Amino acid sequence: MTATAPQMRILIIEDDRESADYLVKAFREVGYIADLASDGEEGLSMAETGDYDVLVVDRMLPKRDGLSLIGSLRDKGNRTPVLILSALGQVDDRIKGLRAGGDDYLPKPYSFAELLARVEVLSRRNVGPAEETTYKVGDLELDRLSHRVARGKDELTLQPREFRLLEYLMKHAGQVVTRTMLLENVWDYHFDPQTNVIDVHISRLRSKIDKGFERPLLHTIRGAGYMIRDGIR
């Protein structure tokens, strides 16, 4: 074990007392600091206020489920690595957990040796730079934490889905974003609903961020998708 290993702080969010006590004891035995929350609300509060290196989160929790907890943290800019534990181990379950903001997913039952190895990998990822909280394209700026959007001196009012759509487009500025990518990452659809929901929201968003401005930033790439970019021809 390295000299810095005992400094690792882990928050375990698990409602099964026997499992929780086992994990706390096992992590402490290898020299880590391990705290425990027994429901989703307590876990969210501790994760927001504590300085943890890794969160180990059970998916099915009382008061607030694990995926909702993770989503709330990510929406507030908390990038602490999360390992999800769950009895739901099918491929679709794992994909849903990762797309909700989890960094790793370990189905139950599991071995502690594997869990420990995965936690240590996640802790090493956390030393890198934090994800951007502000996106800027030309004179358009989006603040992910305050949910503020402005173009030049004009502050823009977006509905939640419009904000999420713009956030995804700006995160991938200069890249073509396909309809499938938008359905999966903005609407959480993993099938084609056969509606014009994307067209409607793109139109509304374009009217808010481009109308009245000299240079359009939101572009439709015929036959491919959409792109946010300054100065495209």
UniProtKB/TrEMBL annotation:
PROSITE patterns: OMPR_PHOB, RESPONSE_REGULATORY
Entry-annotated residues carrying 4-aspartylphosphate: 58
Keywords: DNA-binding, Phosphoprotein, Transcription, Transcription regulation, Two-component regulatory system
CDD domains, per database record: trans_reg_C (cd00383)
Domain OmpR/PhoB-type: 132-230
GO molecular function, one term: transcription cis-regulatory region binding
Annotated SMART domains: REC, Trans_reg_C
One annotated Gene Ontology cellular component of this protein: cytosol
SUPFAM superfamilies: CheY-like
Protein name stated in the entry: Transcriptional regulatory protein CusR
Protein's organism: Bradyrhizobium ivorense
Gene assigned in the entry: cusR_1
